[in-house]
Design a protein that fits this description.
Elements (H helix, E strand, L loop, with lengths): L11 H17 L5 H15 L3 H26 L2 H17 L1 H4 L3 H10 L4 H30 L9 H29 L19 H20 L1
Helix pairs in contact: 1-4, 1-9, 2-4, 2-9, 3-4, 6-7, 7-8
Length: about 230
């Protein structure tokens, strides 16, 4: 995921709101050809704001999936519009998540902390962000340990799957959770409304405003003229 991060991500709150808006408006126009105009306009905006690499990596996969599913929809319903709608909805899922995928999660946490949102939200998000890579690493370590010991577990071998993978994984989860809880306490994190500062401020720039206005204009145009 870190390979998809851009050097100058859009302001986190705008990224979140624009992703939600694109997905919601896209669903409303997904039954019309306007969905294709929306995707074309979003492609241009994303390229202008430095998201070309994310598009190149993500869109081909979703395009392939959408094409296969859309072809099935055309064969079953015998209507080409059904295929276009299916393809458009599949691509919409990718386009609505582009800016969020390219945004370092810590930026969103910092932004929410700057806005003085409840600590339980920012702290929970921070733990979740840090916890996911740890889980992935633990899964890799357990599977590597299973391979080195010559253990080949199949999904339908439930007893072996439980003892060889699930049980060690749960034990590691408990251990990591305790370590993270102690680490948070020793660093002075608290859910109370105590004063705190953000190490690296996330600032709103003119570029972010232009991006927000561009997305709003495209969505409004699609709704009105699409």
């Amino acid at each position: 995921m870190e390979k998809l991060y851009v050097k100058r991500p859009i302001y986190p709150l705008i990224s979140l709101l624009s992703s939600v808006a694109v997905f919601c408006i896209g669903l409303l126009v997904s039954k019309r050809l306007a969905i294709l105009y929306l995707l074309a306009a979003l492609t241009l905006i994303y390229i202008l704001f430095g998201y070309t690499r994310v598009l190149v990596r993500a869109i081909p996969l979703f395009l392939l999936i959408g094409t296969v599913i859309g072809a099935g929809a055309v064969l079953t319903s015998r209507q080409y519009m059904a295929g276009i709608q299916t393809l458009g909805r599949t691509l919409l899922l990718a386009y609505s998540s582009v800016v969020m995928v390219a945004l370092p999660p810590v930026n969103l946490t910092r932004n929410l902390a700057q806005l003085r949102l409840p600590r339980i939200l920012t702290l929970g998000m921070l733990i979740t962000i840090r916890f996911v890579p740890l889980l992935i690493n633990e899964i890799k370590q357990i599977t590597e340990a299973m391979k080195t010991r010559g253990v080949k577990v199949r999904i339908y071998h439930l007893p072996y799957l439980y003892r060889a993978f699930l049980l060690p994984f749960l034990m590691r989860l408990i251990s990591i959770s305790e370590i993270m809880a102690v680490s948070i306490e020793t660093r002075g994190f608290a859910l109370s409304d105590t004063s705190y500062s953000v190490y690296k401020q996330v600032r709103f720039e003119v570029r972010d405003g232009v991006f927000a206005l561009s997305i709003a204009a495209v969505l409004a145009g699609v709704m009105i003229y699409g």
